[in-house]
Amino acid sequence: SYAIDDQSSISKMAALKSAVNNFLGEAAEINEQSGSELIRVGLVKFAGKESSEVGDDRYEEGRFVYNYSQIVSPLTADMSDLKNKVSALRHNGATRADLGFKHASTVMRDARSDAKQVVIFFTDGTPTMQSDFDGNVANDAVTYAKSLKDSGAIVYSIGVFDSANPAPPESR
């Protein structure tokens, strides 16, 4: 399930990218209409080993290349740059939902104190450490999500699966 050419994962990843980029397009429009940086968005990816570096880095294990779980972008109002970063993401690795929420917590520390804090968790799979469901990853993800909620953030979770249609309802 880690293979780079896994067709079901690629189609799910394409659906995820479409959903995230649709969201970023809406955020950009709101910022443009308000004439300010009303909405700022950070981007986190979660896959395999954890990295404290900001970026879109990968590591090799044997013949496979995996994504680090890391912050891809801190909070920014530059939705165009974020769309480019989303488009560059590749599916390679586990689904470390716990590390995704952990990094989201780090990103949210830089939120404006007067801003509504919202975390949108987009996922295409089951919480895993490798390839099968991992209860520790799932439990830690829930713990981090609850911590975000307890600090005042609103947390949404959106799953994108094989039969999902990423188009907005009005265009289907």
Which residues sit in consecutive blocks of at least 5 with pLDDT less than 50? Answer: 1-7
Number of strands: 6
- Share of β-strand residues: 15-25%
The Rg value, from CA coordinates, equals 16 Å
Helix/strand class: alpha+beta
Calculate the terminal CA-CA distance, rounded to whole Å: 31 Å
Strand/helix succession: HEEEEHHEHE
Question: How is the main sheet built?
Answer: 2 strands, antiparallel
- In the sheet with the most strands, the strands line up as 1-4
Q: Note the total helix count.
A: 4
Helix content: 25-40%
Molecular shape? globular
The average pLDDT value, as a whole number, equals 89
Short structural description:
With 172 residues, this protein is an alpha+beta fold. It is built from 4 helices and 6 strands, in the order H-E-E-E-E-H-H-E-H-E.
